[in-house]
Amino acid sequence: MTSRIRLTLFILPLILISCSSSVKVDGVIRGFFEEVNRSNFETAKAKYLSAVTINSLNSPLTRGEHVNANPEAFGYLAGWIDSVEVSNEQVRGETATATVALVVGTGSRYSGRVDLIKEAGREWKISDLSRFNRMGAEHVSRGANGCYPNNVDAVNSEFEAAMAENPQDSLIVSAWGECYLKLGNLAGAEEKFKKAIEMHPDIVWSPYVKLNTVYLQQNKVPEAEAALEKAETVLEKAIKNKPDSAFLCNSLAWLYADKGIKLDRAIELSQKALTLDPDNGSFLDTLGWAFYKKGDREQAVKYLSRAAAKEPSNQQIQSHYRTASQR
């Protein structure tokens, strides 16, 4: 009996140490992504990355190239992360690993692995991150690429598989609706777009824009206008919350330019997007198309020619440039 008590007393501290390490690992990971979500990339790097990893990021040989554990690699998610889920923590001496899921406002989940080391035997620091993949994305890609009339069953199977991986992702449902729209199944498209909106009504805007297209094809003009106004409202709110997002600015600018409405606002937004990302061909296309819709052919050709040069394989951009260039 005495030996059993001694064994238990010996094991108990090891369990407590392991739990304590796991909690610290969890805190480091969460702290890192909290800073990323606030676009504090330098703070995330300084506080949570190992010295060796920071040196790699600052090295002239790797600067500007892909380096694992680079906080800026998650810049596209900054401001959108709703929660950080840490699981499967495994601590082995002075190294640790954990599985991490980042959940964003649209319900999309990005999953990856985080490696850590106990730097100088004292503090846990992140040493490496795997590529974070959006769950269900491969099935969505196959479904979208195979969206043809003679392949409907296979397409539905792919989207169903994507939803099984992440049933809360409204963007999967919206992509499914886009496939139906392409196939001319307006009832099916409307159902999917409404479902995507129902899941996250004040965050997603693309399904509202797609609903506008569905309603216009059905000659439901009041419903089409209401859907477009809702898309505008959601985007304006998103831009207010994240004013330095080039993607959001361009999204609303394109909505206006494509529909030929509020063109001064479209030009203002697309110019802002270009100050944040000057070489983006899609942003140049938006600005050029807004000028074209406004009737300023000279400015339209100026920006559309640059867009066409940067995106030679983009058929939409090439078409815009040809249209604006015609006399």
Which blocks of ≥5 consecutive residues have pLDDT under 50?
4-19
For the termini, the CA-CA separation is 98 Å
Number of strands: 5
Shape: globular
Estimate what percentage of residues fall within beta strands. Answer: 5-15%
CATH T-level topology of the largest domain: Nuclear Transport Factor 2, Chain: A
SSE order in H/E notation? HHHEEEEEHHHHHHHHHHH
Mean of residue pLDDT values: 89
Number of helices: 14
**CATH top level assignment of the largest domain:** Alpha Beta
Whole-number radius of gyration?
Answer: 24 Å
Structure description:
The chain is α+β, with helices and mostly antiparallel strands and 327 residues long. 62% of the residues lie in helices and 13% in strands. Strands 1, 2, 3, 4 and 5 form a 5-stranded antiparallel beta sheet that branches. Strand 3 and strand 4 form a beta hairpin. The protein is globular and about 70 Å long. About 5% of the residues have low confidence.
Quick description:
With 327 residues, this protein is of the alpha+beta class. Helix content is 62%, strand content 13%.
Keywords:
alpha+beta, 327 residues, Nuclear Transport Factor 2, Chain: A, 3 domains, Serine Threonine Protein Phosphatase 5, Tetratricopeptide repeat, 5-stranded antiparallel beta sheet, single chain, 14 helices
Describe the protein's topology:
Elements: H1 2-37, H2 41-48, H3 51-58, E1 81-92, E2 95-104, E3 109-119, E4 123-129, E5 133-134, H4 137-145, H5 152-165, H6 170-183, H7 186-199, H8 206-217, H9 221-241, H10 246-259, H11 263-276, H12 281-294, H13 297-310, H14 315-325
Antiparallel strand pairs: 1-2, 2-3, 3-4, 3-5
Helix pairs in contact: 1-2, 4-5, 4-6, 6-7, 6-8, 7-8, 8-9, 9-10, 10-11, 10-12, 11-12, 12-13, 12-14, 13-14
